């Protein structure tokens, strides 16, 4: 079957690119092995943020005493699980999403697609040919670390955690990255006894050390056990209880085990070797137009530029313009924003202090605490957080905004890093009183 473009994988970026290319008049085939929409709407961003919204509501209600009276809350996981089934995922049915895509003129092929030659994808024995090229948008899947015994146990990955119909009594979370931190706090707030095991020396290891320290403090205050420097060595399951040994400290036991130790993309399963690409690589390398080879584009998690929906959509926009021969700015990654939606939210953009120093930049940093700002003091309960700025050569190269609405406050810092606005000019701006983002002004003064 002949097409102009074949899009392999219909996660956020693949779906967007396929739909827009078809609307522009190209003959587009999309190949999807699972659900149209990918990880984000069914097992990622959307349902996890629904869980977080519910968990945050419980905690806000628990903060009433001492500020506004008394409160008592009775968590009901059934309401969260119900919303995820009915409102978010349609019980993991993608009929609506598939109709939306085919309604734009895309021909959808269900099944695992593989590149079998340049310009050729085979799915379920059917050969599809693309005159202009192939877009690889196949995302990532949970990585399973090589821990003795693990694969023999019924551990959870993010799919199982998102589909949970009950909050477990106890839960071990392996990995204190974005997924581990968000879901550890969610289940804890619904009454689960949670232990986080993180092999690095802090939670959210790529972020500023102050972010990991802050989360540890908040987690421990909420009753979550946090063990860092704790790489799992062995996992057992006796039919009802998991036991995880870490080499240091006592073994941990719990009803469930969530493995959230990162993601992987299997390039050999995609057949990108047909284009001369290294199939043992962790990700597909692209140029600024997201081209990986003549007639091959890649976007999303598979490019290794940040496993975030906004990165996938940003790259999809570049792919669409490039394929249509329209002008578009090359992809830039100096200001990739990311938000871990714990409470407090950890928002960050650009380089951490350590990353900037590793690049040999002459770095200046400053940090102020949200609790010391007027808004933080007014807020009283749940006012933990900080702003940290990393500057070099008179511009911000990185920033962290941790706190209530930390992800929203991040927006102005993303703009500053993206547009390389001089620090001096940022300091001349007006900051509304009393807002959380006014802490940025105080931090600029420190800087
Ligand atoms: C629990 C969790 C929470 C998250 N929260 C956030 C968040 O708050 N914000 C954020 O920005 N990001 C978040 N993410 C990350 C986000 O979900 C991913 O970065 C995003 O979905 C990646 O999009 P993608 O376009 O690369 O493809 P994916 O969403 O990974 O989809 C790829 C699709 O390709 C299909 N596919 C793979 N191989 C083939 C093949 N050979 N043939 C056919 N189809 C194939 C898959 O079935 C899948 O549907 C979260 C992830 C998880 C797991
Ligand atoms: N809010 C968001 O934007 C959001 C939320 C969830 C996920 N995501 C995306 O999905 C990606 C995957 O999330 P993730 O949390 O699985 O990966 P991650 O890479 O963010 O974190 C994995 C953590 O597991 C630790 N680890 C690895 N092996 C271990 C072991 N054997 N024992 C103990 N700890 C171990 C690592 O040190 C790391 O801190 C994220 O990097 C992020 O890009 C984004």
Automatic annotation (TrEMBL):
Binds 1 FAD per subunit. Its cofactor is FAD. InterPro entries: FAD/NAD-bd_sf (IPR036188), FAD/NAD-binding_dom (IPR023753), FAD/NAD-linked_Rdtase_dimer_sf (IPR016156), Pyr_nuc-diS_OxRdtase (IPR001100), Pyr_nucl-diS_OxRdtase_dimer (IPR004099). The keyword Nucleotide-binding applies. NAD(+) binds at residues 175-182, 198, 262. The keyword NAD applies. GO terms for molecular function: flavin adenine dinucleotide binding; NAD(P)H dehydrogenase (quinone) activity. Pfam families: Pyr_redox_2, Pyr_redox_dim. It comes from the Bacteria. Residues 3-316 form the FAD/NAD(P)-binding domain. FAD binds at residues 49, 113, 138-140, 301. Disulfide bonds join 40-45. Keywords: FAD, Flavoprotein, NAD, Nucleotide-binding, Pyruvate. Residues 336-441 form the Pyridine nucleotide-disulphide oxidoreductase dimerisation domain. Belongs to the class-I pyridine nucleotide-disulfide oxidoreductase family. This is Pyruvate/2-oxoglutarate dehydrogenase complex dihydrolipoamide dehydrogenase (E3) component.
């Amino acid at each position: 079957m002949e097409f102009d473009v074949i899009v392999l994988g219909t996660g956020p970026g693949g779906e967007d690119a396929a739909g827009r290319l078809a609307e522009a008049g190209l003959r587009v085939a999309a190949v999807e092995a699972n659900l149209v929409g990918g990880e984000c709407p069914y097992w990622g961003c959307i349902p996890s943020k629904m869980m977080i919204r519910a968990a945050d509501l419980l905690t806000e209600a628990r903060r009433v005493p001492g500020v506004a009276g008394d409160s008592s809350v009775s968590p009901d996981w059934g309401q969260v699980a119900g919303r995820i089934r009915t409102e978010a995922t349609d019980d993991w049915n993608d009929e609506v999403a598939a109709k939306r895509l085919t309604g734009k003129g895309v021909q959808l092929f269900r099944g695992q697609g593989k590149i079998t030659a340049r310009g050729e994808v085979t799915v379920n024995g059917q050969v599809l040919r693309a005159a202009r090229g192939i877009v690889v948008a196949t995302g990532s899947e949970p990585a399973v670390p090589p821990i003795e015994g693990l694969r023999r146990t019924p551990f959870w990955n993010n799919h199982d955690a998102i589909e949970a119909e009950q909050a477990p009594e106890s839960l071990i979370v392996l990995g204190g990255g974005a997924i581990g931190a968000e879901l550890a706090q969610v289940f804890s707030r619904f009454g689960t006894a949670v232990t986080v095991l993180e092999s690095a020396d802090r939670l959210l290891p790529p972020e500023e050390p102050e972010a990991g320290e802050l989360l540890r403090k908040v987690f421990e205050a909420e009753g979550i056990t946090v063990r860092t420097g704790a790489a799992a060595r062995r996992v057992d399951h006796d039919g009802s209880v998991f036991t995880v040994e870490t080499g240091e400290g006592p073994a941990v036991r719990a009803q469930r085990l969530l493995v959230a130790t990162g993601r992987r993309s299997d390039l050999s399963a995609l057949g990108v070797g047909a284009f001369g690409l290294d199939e043992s690589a962790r990700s597909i390398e692209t140029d600024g137009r997201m081209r990986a080879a003549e007639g091959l584009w890649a976007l999303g998690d598979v490019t290794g530029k940040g496993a975030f929906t906004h990165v996938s959509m940003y790259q999809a926009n570049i792919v669409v313009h490039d394929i249509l021969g329209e002008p578009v700015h090359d992809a830039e990654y100096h200001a990739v924003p990311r938000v871990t939606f714990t409470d407090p939210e950890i928002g960050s953009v650009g380089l951490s202090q350590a990353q900037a120093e590793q690049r040999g930049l002459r770095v200046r940093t400053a940090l102020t605490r949200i609790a010391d700002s007027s808004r933080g003091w007014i807020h009283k309960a749940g006012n933990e957080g900080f702003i940290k700025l990393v500057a070099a050569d008179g511009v911000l190269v990185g920033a962290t905004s941790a706190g209530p609405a930390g992800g929203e406050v991040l927006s102005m810092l993303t703009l500053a890093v993206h547009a390389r606005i001089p620090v001096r000019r940022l300091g001349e701006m007006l900051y509304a009183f009393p807002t959380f983002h006014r802490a940025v002004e105080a931090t600029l003064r420190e800087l």
